[in-house]
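Narrative of accomplishments. A recurring question from our advisory board has been how the design workflow behaves on a single, concrete structure rather than in aggregate. To address it, we present the structure tokens for one chain from the evaluation set, followed by the sequence designed for it. No filtering or post-editing was applied between the two.
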């Protein structure tokens, strides 16, 4: 694994899916540069300036992952070695691919962690001369995909769309109409309406569509999705949100990607009308390192094997992230799909916003938990106490500023300063979250099963 080699990555992304190795499957997520063909080697800049060959190979493997080089042959995996990259190698790796501010942060963290200060300072200053590279600029384009004729598209696949809603009829109308315009018609569109006083007549206008309605009194986004999945009949489950817009080829693209990449999950991208643009690394096919319950197609067998969404996350965040982690560890392959996109309106009313803050790290009340307890529940469950704390260290300070400024470097800097000034309040918020996540851990999972078809 990357963390076993470039260990400084844990300061940057401590709770990344791929910091853990799957329990099943032989997919070579980290490939050996020496075993790649010339085409894939040409996409990678092999760096021989590290202090050992092992560091050069892991740098190349990191590039391959980020550049969307997708393999299925387990024989291409890069094996771990007893020889690990040096302190300087780690600083160099960080300087090559990440904002230079991470160097300062990591240096401070390691000195206060009683690491050898001489090695740290020497490695830090030596790495300052390393040029930062855009790892995404050159990537695998998968040119064969555009002209690929997927058999699955012509075989009349059965797709069940799962669409929860809460007090958003004006937006829901557009979402359902978009589903009705799909090139591949869904077998069923299962709407789970959690509105307090549901407008049942609203659905009369869609009598030509295969709607199945569930009017649910108890509010819970994962309860809603689980109920819909349990009553679904399709071989493929397609997750959608009520404040989204999609193109007519949305279903087609999801299905095509599953066949072309021999994957189990197609994770579409979301184009937000709030905040910054979609990052460059989501503009092409690569392994998915997140699962978005508003835009993802899943083979039914995945739910049958790993279970449904964990009800511990009802009313909170990260229920989709937890499912994605569970599927990844079980060996299922998920593709980040740039063409299966949706416009996520992120409207200020209804949905999860009505149940509480829809941002996991930005509470609405002064002394409310920061982050939402379910976030820490996920981090502690899959990554342990230490990595969960590291995640808090690099995610809580930026959360002081409003969401719309989350990509603004100047505002992030002021957010970090402000978090120091209001440290006692932030500490109380974090401790509340930690305590509540401990309760969730003690209670355990609430994962229901989806019985395989007879």
């Amino acid at each position: 694994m990357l963390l076993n080699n470039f260990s400084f990555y844990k300061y940057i992304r401590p709770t990344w899916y791929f910091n853990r190795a799957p329990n099943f499957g032989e997919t070579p997520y980290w490939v050996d540069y020496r075993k790649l063909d010339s085409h894939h080697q040409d996409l990678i800049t092999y760096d021989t300036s590290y202090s050992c060959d092992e560091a050069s190979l892991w740098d190349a493997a990191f590039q391959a992952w980020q550049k969307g080089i997708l393999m299925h042959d387990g024989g291409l995996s890069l094996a771990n070695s007893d020889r690990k990259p040096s302190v300087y190698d780690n600083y160099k790796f960080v300087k090559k691919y990440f904002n230079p501010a991470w160097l300062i942060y990591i240096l401070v963290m390691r000195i206060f962690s009683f690491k050898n200060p001489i090695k740290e300072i020497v490695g830090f200053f030596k790495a300052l001369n390393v040029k930062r590279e855009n790892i995404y600029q050159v990537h695998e384009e998968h040119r064969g995909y555009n002209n690929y004729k997927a058999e699955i598209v012509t075989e009349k696949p059965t797709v069940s769309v799962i669409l929860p809603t809460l007090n958003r009829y004006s937006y829901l109308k557009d979402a359902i109409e978009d589903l009705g315009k799909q090139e591949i018609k869904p077998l069923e569109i299962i709407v789970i309406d959690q509105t307090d006083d549901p407008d049942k007549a609203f659905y009369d206008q869609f009598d030509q569509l295969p709607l199945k309605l569930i009017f649910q009194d108890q509010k819970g986004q994962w309860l809603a999705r689980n109920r819909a999945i349990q009553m679904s009949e399709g071989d493929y489950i397609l997750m959608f949100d009520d404040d989204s817009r999609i193109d007519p080829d949305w279903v087609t693209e999801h299905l095509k990607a599953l066949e072309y990449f021999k994957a189990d999950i197609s994770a579409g991208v979301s184009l937000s009308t709030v905040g910054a643009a979609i990052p460059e690394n989501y503009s092409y096919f690569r392994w998915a390192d997140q699962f978005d319950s508003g835009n993802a197609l899943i083979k039914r067998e995945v739910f049958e094997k790993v279970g449904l969404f964990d009800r511990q996350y009802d009313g909170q965040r990260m229920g989709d992230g937890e499912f994605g982690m569970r599927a990844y560890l079980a060996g299922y392959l998920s593709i980040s799909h740039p063409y299966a996109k949706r416009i996520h309106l992120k409207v200020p009313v209804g949905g999860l916003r009505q149940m509480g803050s829809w941002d996991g790290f930005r509470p609405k009340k002064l002394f409310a938990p920061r982050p939402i307890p379910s976030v820490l529940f996920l981090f502690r469950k899959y990554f342990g106490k230490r990595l969960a704390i590291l995640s808090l260290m690099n995610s809580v300070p930026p959360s002081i500023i409003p969401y719309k400024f989350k990509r603004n470097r100047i505002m992030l800097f002021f957010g970090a300063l402000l978090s120091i000034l209001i440290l006692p309040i932030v500490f109380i918020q974090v401790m509340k979250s930690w305590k509540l996540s401990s309760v969730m851990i003690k209670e355990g999972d609430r994962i229901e099963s989806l019985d395989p078809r007879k």
